[in-house]
Amino acid sequence: MFKKVLIANRGEVALRVMRACKELGVKTVAVYSTEDENTYPVQYADEKVCIGPAQAAKSYLVMSNIIEAARITGAEAIHPGYGFLAENADFARACVDNDIVFIGPSAECIERMGDKSSARETMKACGVPTVPGSDGCIDTVEEARQFAERVGYPVLIKATAGGGGKGMREVHDPAELESHYKAARAEAGAAFGNDEVYLEKLVLRPRHVEVQVLADDFGNNVALCERDCSVQRRHQKLIEEAPSPALTDELRRAMGVAAIKAVRAVDYRNAGTIEFLLDTTGKFYFMEMNTRVQVEHPVSEQITGTDIIKEQLRIASGEPMSCASRAPFTPFGHAMEFRINAEDPEHGFRPCPGTITRFEPPAGPGVRVEAYVHSGSKISPYYDSMVAKLIVSGQDREECLARGRRALDEFVIEGIQTTLPFHRRVLDNEVFCAGEATTDFIETQMGDVL
Ligand code: MV4
Questions:
Q1: Among 148, 17, 115, 134, which residue's Cα sits nearest to residue 75?
Q2: What share of the chain is helix, strand, coil (3-state, %, to 5)?
Q3: Catalytic residue IDs
Q4: 288 CA to middle of ligand 1, Å?
Q5: What is the pLDDT of residues 396-447, one digit of tens each?
Q6: Best mutation site among 131, 197, 208 for ligand 1, i.e. most ligand atoms within 8 A of its Cβ?
Q7: How many CA atoms lie within 13 A of 443 on its CB side?
Q8: Whose Cα sits closest to atom 15 in ligand 1?
Q9: 84 near 8, Cβ under 8 Å?
């Protein structure tokens, strides 16, 4: 195991990784911007190095400063968390070039999965189901039209450099194909510096179901069941749960087998997620692979009894994962995660930075809170607005829902607006409670509260 690890992140995930390090007897190095100097993860670390001013582009995204911080503190490995440099292949390569272990997959895997069209081709070639789509990217409107006419409308135009919905356009009417095609390319070019797009048949009212995987250097490849992340707003997840209420045991097994096939096809190592779309008839299709640990990893930990961050550290240090003998996993009970953001749900979820005057998290059976804030914390306008995650678990979905209601009622955050009241209302919604939410849930079911 490593002796010292640098955490190239901030907020709750930095603290989450440091806690795992502490349990493994690994020393921690925090890197931080001047804005974050007084935050909990920076105080929690054994050592700290300031890497720049508030703007992420001048601190958390400056690879050379982070590599230098690892060098001067003697950290052998860097955990990138999620966001920032977590899926940056150049950063993974820079670590390796400086004899630092990147706690994540290889730069090659990050690159192969980062290009969505080629990821799709790779998956198709190894027998993972994909949505009917174009062979590679589509360079002209005429080609796009031919494809749409062959598979039938509606179709979805996607940016190959995309993910998270940017550069994506639905086309329901042939008359709109040309304008949407041009708009998607322009948006992708502006956002990613790569305007290539590909087409897929549009899956209507899908669910977002993703499989958590772990892979080590000893040939162990395991699926830690799935998460259902259908409750999203503008591609920002708000609630995740495991297992998915939409899966049968048979479907779960098939999705796990497909996910492991995907992992083997690219010789993937460390933690990753295979995202699938699940259609209303129970068919699933590969969407994207996330080559990092995700915000919602705790729900998988709760229902599988694993510590995904510790497994990442073991795998990266060349040890076998500790949970391989327990595969194939069957979900134990149920877990849900509610993202508590410093946002005002009544005004379009606009960010509300400020000072938290009172922070009283819930506790008791089946309650886990991942937060980096306390009474008196200042929420910076420079970063993501997530201030805490509430994870509740129970022996079944009903108990989980009841615990969610109880814990949200106990949770007090004063001084700023948060998504707490929004979550409480979701737990009174019949469609959500019935386990029937699809990706249009917020627009179609929660419209009246927004
Ligand atoms: C789709 C789709 C329907 N059909 N692909 C959203 C972001 C990117 N990861 C891919 N996404 C989608 N791809 C086909 N062929 C619908 C979405 C989608 C979506 C997926 C998961 C969760 C929320 C979503 C919201 C809008 C669209």
A1: 17
A2: 35, 25, 35
A3: 292
A4: 10
A5: 999 999 999 999 999 999 999 999 999 999 999 999 999 999 999 999 999 8
A6: 208
A7: 9
A8: 202
A9: yes
